[in-house]
């Protein structure tokens, strides 16, 4: 639309003015819409002087790493630095089943891996006699208001404990989405030609599937949840419900088993929980009254296609008292 074209042009100009003719920028991609749109805008403004970093922690849903590595790159031509940290995250999560400890572990590893990647990108730039001075972030208007942030840019200090970098290294933030609401960000993303799967992605937590496995996170359990989640998402999309539902976590009760029967055989598998909710802002939520036919298709497909799952249940708790995620 005309307005979105304007926003894109305006932001591209503003980014050019801020970063200048020679400045270089770095941006972390999460798979979500905000970082993707912010990166795409900066790419349009300064091209190869932007490097994106994507840490694959192995906790994304089926197809999401490929969406970033293949589809996002194809749509934007962005220069991407991928870190495959799946093994590292699994090792760090071994034996951890407490929700808070899981979150802390994932957060800590993420910062370490991201900073190491940043250092590598910075090192490459320094070798070429260039200086990376800008850090792109997908901060939205509601985030700005919530944190009481004023206008203009601010400097943050990056804590590098990875060798060879000056202690006083400072990044200036580039936040091209600071004046926008989520729905506007999505329209800008469409305007920029980003893949629909990224632009219309439901909210997804930073710790990813790690907090949707109740119990220890292992490679096998991730594989099970990824399959079940992919089926649930596929059916929700097929039913045309993506925009009515705020999000629908699928949760694997990995430490629970129940007896079932399939064909002639007894099964002893895991339950998954569908958690469809409607919400305005995730502060409160209502459980979504999914049509029975949709629940039926999801249940039939998951129990047929995911061997380790023999029961599908639906969470009918609002927030409060429940939270949206189970951990
Ligand atoms: P809860 O479970 O608190 O979730 O009702 C509210 C919303 O926040 C998302 N969520 C997160 N997002 N990092 C994120 O970026 C996190 O650690 C995180 N935890 C929860 C959740 O998916 C829901 O949209």
From TrEMBL:
Protein's UniProt keywords contain ATP-binding: yes
The protein's Enzyme Commission number: 6.3.5.2
Cellular component terms per the entry's GO annotation: cytosol
Catalytic reactions of this protein: XMP + L-glutamine + ATP + H2O = GMP + L-glutamate + AMP + diphosphate + 2 H(+)
Pathway assignment: Purine metabolism; GMP biosynthesis; GMP from XMP (L-Gln route): step 1/1
Binding positions for ATP per the UniProt entry: 30-36
Keyword Zinc in record: no
Source organism, top-level taxon: Bacteria
Span of domain GMPS ATP-PPase: 2-201
UniProt entry keywords in alphabetical sequence: ATP-binding, Glutamine amidotransferase, GMP biosynthesis, Ligase, Nucleotide-binding, Purine biosynthesis
MF GO annotations: ATP binding; GMP synthase activity
Function: Catalyzes the synthesis of GMP from XMP.
Subunit structure: Homodimer.
Descriptive protein name: GMP synthase [glutamine-hydrolyzing]
Gene this chain is encoded by: guaA
Part of the whole protein covered: 198 to 524 of 524
């Amino acid at each position: 639309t005309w307005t979105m074209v304007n926003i894109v042009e305006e932001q591209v100009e503003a980014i050019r003015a801020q970063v200048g003719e020679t400045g270089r920028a770095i941006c972390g991609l999460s798979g979500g819409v905000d970082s993707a749109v912010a990166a795409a805008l900066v790419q349009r403004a300064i091209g190869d002087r932007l490097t994106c970093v994507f840490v694959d922690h192995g906790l994304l849903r089926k197809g999401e790493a490929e969406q970033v590595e293949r589809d996002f790159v194809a749509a934007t031509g962005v220069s991407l630095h991928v870190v495959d940290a799946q093994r590292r995250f699994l090792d760090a999560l071994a034996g951890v089943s407490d929700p808070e400890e899981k979150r802390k572990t994932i957060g800590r590893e993420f910062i370490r891996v991201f900073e190491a990647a940043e250092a590598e990108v910075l090192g490459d730039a320094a070798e070429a006699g260039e200086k990376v001075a800008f850090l792109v972030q997908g901060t939205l208007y509601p985030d700005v208001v919530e944190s009481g942030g004023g206008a203009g840019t601010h400097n943050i200090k990056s804590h590098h404990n990875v060798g060879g970098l000056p202690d006083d290294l400072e990044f200036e933030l580039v936040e091209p989405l600071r004046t926008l609401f989520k729905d506007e960000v999505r329209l800008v993303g469409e305007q920029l030609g980003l893949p629909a799967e990224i632009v219309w992605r439901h909210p997804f937590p930073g710790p990813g599937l790690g907090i949707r496995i109740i119990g220890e996170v292992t490679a096998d359990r991730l594989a099970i949840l990824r399959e079940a989640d992919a089926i649930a998402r596929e059916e929700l999309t097929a039913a045309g419900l993506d925009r009515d539902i705020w999000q629908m976590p699928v949760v694997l009760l990995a430490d629970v088993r129940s007896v079932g029967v399939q064909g002639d055989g007894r099964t002893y598998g895991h339950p998954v929980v569908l958690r469809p909710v409607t919400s305005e802002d995730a502060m409160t939520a209502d459980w979504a009254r999914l049509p029975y036919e949709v629940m039926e298709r999801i249940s039939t497909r998951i129990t047929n296609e995911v061997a380790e799952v023999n029961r599908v249940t639906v969470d009918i708790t609002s927030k409060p008292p429940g939270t949206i995620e189970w951990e």
